[in-house]
Structures are given as C-alpha cells and as structure tokens.
Amino acid sequence: MLNSELAARLRLAFDDDRDAETFLLRLDRYGPELVDSLRAVFGDRTDDLLDTLIPVVLHAFHTRPADLKRLDEARLLRPDWLQGPDVVGYVAYTDRFAGTLKGVGQHLDYLEDLGITYLHLMPLLKPREGENDGGYAVADYRAVRDDLGTMDDLSALARDLRARGISLVLDLVLNHVAQEHEWAVKARAGDPVYRDYFYLYPDRTQPDAFEKTLPEVFPEFAPGNFTWNEPAKAWVWTTFNTYQWDLNWSSPAVFQEFVDIILHLANRGVEVFRLDAIAFIWKRLGTDSQNQPEVHHLTRALRACARIAAPGVAFKAEAIVAPADLMAYLGTGDHHGKVSDMAYHNSLMVQIWSSLASRDVRLMTAALRAFPPKPTNTTWGMYVRCHDDIGWAISDADAEQVGRDGPGHRHFLSDFYSGEHPGSFARGLVFQYNPDTGDRRISGSGASLAGLEAALDAGNHTWSEHAVRRILLSHAVILGFGGVPLLYMGDELAMLNDYSYETTPEHAADNRWVHRPRMDWARADSVKSDPSSAAAQVNAGLRRLIDARKNLPHLHASVESEALDSPDPCVLLLRRDHPSGRFLGVYNFSEYRIQLPAYALRNEVGEFALDHLTGSGFSLYRPTITLEPFRALWLTPTQMTI
Ligand code: GLC
User: Fold this and answer.
1) CA distance 243 to 234
2) What is the model's pTM?
3) CATH code for the domain of 195
4) For the chain, how big is the Rg over CA atoms in Å?
C-alpha cells in the first residue's frame, strides 16, 4: 500500500479528484514493482531517483491527451489486446513505403485491406547525418527525421491509424545514442554529468578486460567494442558501430531520461515500443554483457512507469538471444509476465529457414520443445523476414539431439542461403563473416531466399511454384503459431532482392539493404490484373491465411504451440490446446508429395477434421493422407461427415 503521507502529497498535484484517484491506484498497483526493481539496480540511490522520477511520470499523466486516456481505459478492459488472432503486424520503412509520414497516411486503405492492426515504422526519429545504421543511431528522440515530416505529422498519423484499429509501433533505441546526440556532445565537452551517461575509459585497461569475453556484433564494420575518441580523450564503449555510443544504464539519470522519452512518445500516440538491442544494456566484467539480470529489472521498472502514466502502451523486446535467455524478457520467477509484453521468436524464424533447406523438421521440433511456456499474458512477435540479417542461432545441444553437428549445420545453412551449396534455391548474401567463429550471417529478401529469384532467372515454372509455396508455408507457420505475425514490407508481394544498394554510397557497405527495397506500388496494383503472377499468388495466399487466422480463437497467444513427434521428417505438427478446442497445424516443408499416416492426425483431432485454410472437411478414418508439396493444414475437429 502506498504510504498515506506520500498519497496526501501527491493528491495536491491534482485539480480533479477522479484523476488523483486513478493515478494513486496505478501507483499503488505498480509502485512496488517499480521500487523493487530500482532498488535492485540502483541500491541506495533509489530514493533520490524517485524524488525526481515521480514528477516526470506525473507530468506525463497530466498531459496525456484525452483520446489516449480513453485508449488506456479500453486497454485496461482488454489486457489481452496484443494476444488475439485479430492482431496482424506490418513492418515498413516510412520513406521506402510511402515517402513521408503523410504519405503513409495515404496508404491506410492498403494496410486495412490487408488486415493489418499493428504498424511498425522502422526508425524515424532524427538520426545522425550520413551513416546511421538504418536510423538506429538516434541524435534526437524528440524530433522526426527531417525528410519524413514532423512530430505533429507523427501524432496525426498515430491518430488516423488508431481510428482504423491500427497501433503505431516505434523503435526505442536504448542501448546507445549517436555520437552527435547532445548527451554525447556534452560528454565530449567534459561535462561530468553527461560523461557519466556513457562508458568512457582513459586507457585500454578496462576495455581489454571486458574484451576478453565480449563477442563482436559487426566484426566487419566495427571490430571490437570500444572506440578511441580524441575530443573525449577516452575509449568509448561502442558495441555496434563506432558512432553509436553505448549508454551507461547504471546511471539513474539515464533511466529517468528514458522514462521521459517513452512517455513523451506515448503521449504522441506510440502504442508499442520495440526495445532495440535490449539485451546489451547492462555490462558486467567477465561475461558477454548480454542478458544480465539488471536488464530485466530496468525493463520492469520502465514498464511500471509506463503502466502508471500510459497503461495502453506495450513493450516488445528485441532480444535476439539463445532460447534459454529469452524467457527472462517476458519475465521468469518474480518477474513472470511483468517485463516485456512481447518478444521476437527468433528461433522460430531461423528454424523455418533451416527446415526449408534441409527438408527436415526434426531439428525444429527439438528446438521448439526446448522452449519453456511463456507467461500467459505475453505474446510472441513472429516473423519470416525482417530488416536484419539472419544469424544461424541453432544450438549445438538441439542439433546433437537429432544427430546433427551444430557448427556443421550452421555452415551448411550459410552455404545454402548464400547460394553456394549445390542445388540451393536461395539467392542470399553473406553478411559479417567472422573468421574467428566461422559465422556467416545472411541477407536477402524472403522471396529471393525462398527461391523465386533463381526460378525467374532460370524461367523455371516449377521452381517458381515451389518458391511461392515456400513463402506461403513459412507464413502459415507464423500466422498459425499464436502471437503477432509481423509481415515484412514487400513480402506480401514476393518482392525480390534489391541490388541498388550497391550504388547508393551510404548503403553500399551494408548488404542488409538488399532486403530493404522501396515499395513497388505498381506490383501491388498488378496483383489484381495478373492473378497468375508469383506476386499475386503470394498475395492471395497470404490474404487467405490472414482471413482464416482472424476466425480462429485457438490462435490466442495465451496458449502454447506444442511441437509433436511426426511420422514423417518433412512434416511439422504443431498442436494448440485452447479452451475452444484443439488446433493442429500440419506443415509439409518439402517439395515432395507426402503420404502421411492419417493416425498421426486422427489421434489429435479425431475422425473428422475441418481445414480452415481451404474450408473443406475430411475424414481421417483412412490409412494415409496425401500432403501436396509445401502444403499447410490448419485443422480443428468437426462433427461433419463427408
Ligand atoms: C537491432 C536492430 C539492428 C541494429 C542494432 C543496433 O539489432 O535490429 O538493425 O543494427 O539493433 O541498433
């Protein structure tokens, strides 16, 4: 319970009794989590921090616009708003999708028609000039990139989106700022307050000690994790690029700055924050400085502040980490369900590509089984492609379990998706070869990795058909898994690699731009006039998947997908036990026509099943069922006989 003296003091800050009541109730509810986590991180500096932090939260509460307060109420009445099957995400660069924020506003019919309810616009806050890691080097969190529009445009777009039931999602880059950000400028100028916002070391002693156990994120662009800065006379911690300065989250002032930024943007209409590179925000000597317990305390404390001033807001963790470390981002133990509301399911994405290459789902099955259940109030962000490269996050233990060698399989996947493996259908590019570890990550658009580019070049109709089916199968898995499917702009039109980055000076060195094309609106129009094209088939197939998903309560993210033993190594079986009944996803990851023993399905859904992807019912009371190449079935039991 909130102590009565503090409550009385806080009441004075309100003209309206009802507002005071709301604030105090929320503080009562989330205050203990906040204080507990702050103490775990900041110890006896917590009380001083609270003295300055509470006014920041209070200010945000007072200045939250009425329409967003209404949204808060609606969200409090429907806390599972991010978990339902109606939620479908879309991820796009503002400029590449529509030029400007106002331009995005002109394509809302397109998004709504596709069934989108969640729009992640890639980094759009003011970045540094020149190279900026795709916008992830932010110079000002309170301004929009000049060529995209203004903060008022952002608020207006958020409002228009909201009116159509679409939530605006923005990146919150909290591990680092651009070296041009005013905090870094002041730190360089010697201001001790701001020097404390960063990790600055006068010589190599500490950096060398840390380096012993730190991996390299960009071994080619930015080897090492520290950069000498002459004006600051210091080695600066720069995990990513040399111009991205890591923030020192052990400073309470940094925490407070970000509470202020989050609430400021929330009051502009941002509904979901993608916590960029969240795994890295706490450093500890002798470790890889990722996934440290303080990361989760800090997230829980940030979330508590958001819940008090803007409970309509949700957090999505971008933690591309091993499954064993991932669950803590959604909350384990005392933190269960109190950290981020959503996390990327990187492993699912990696396993989809791995199974497509090997035509074998046994590794995927083992990997999925190794995941403990997530908190029932949280959700996954599921994706086939995103703006980043694919790193082959395959655990040696999972590989061993199915008789594969981890390093060997990762090597195979890099060969396969760079097109070097004989018989590969993929056209990808190697991103950040690391000679020390042998890692070769892969860039490439979904369609090019799935074989469409090679098929079109060869004029091979069968290959092209296979590529279309691979794309649809992958999407069937993410749309049928339970969580928020995140469609990556252009994938709904099977857009291919875009090699124009090679001649764009600021992109040429970073081949992730090969899969960050400009939206091809002519292609979007052509799907109506030429329904036989690959783009049209993918588009129509995706729309069918989205429609089917929206009508299936079984896909609510509160229940888990469970990977079953399958009688055929090409066929993935995912079962979901929802109070509405059982759901079985059946996915043929191969170009083979599979004769699947029907008992495997009958044991799960009974004698008669309805396939929600075709709307047809069929009997499983027979020895085998034929699965066409790359066929997906979404089955539920039915009474119907045919
Ligand atoms: C995230 C982003 C990636 C960026 C990095 C550094 O991983 O997805 O694009 O390079 O963070 O901000």
Assistant:
1) 14
2) 0.97
3) 3.90.400.10
4) 25
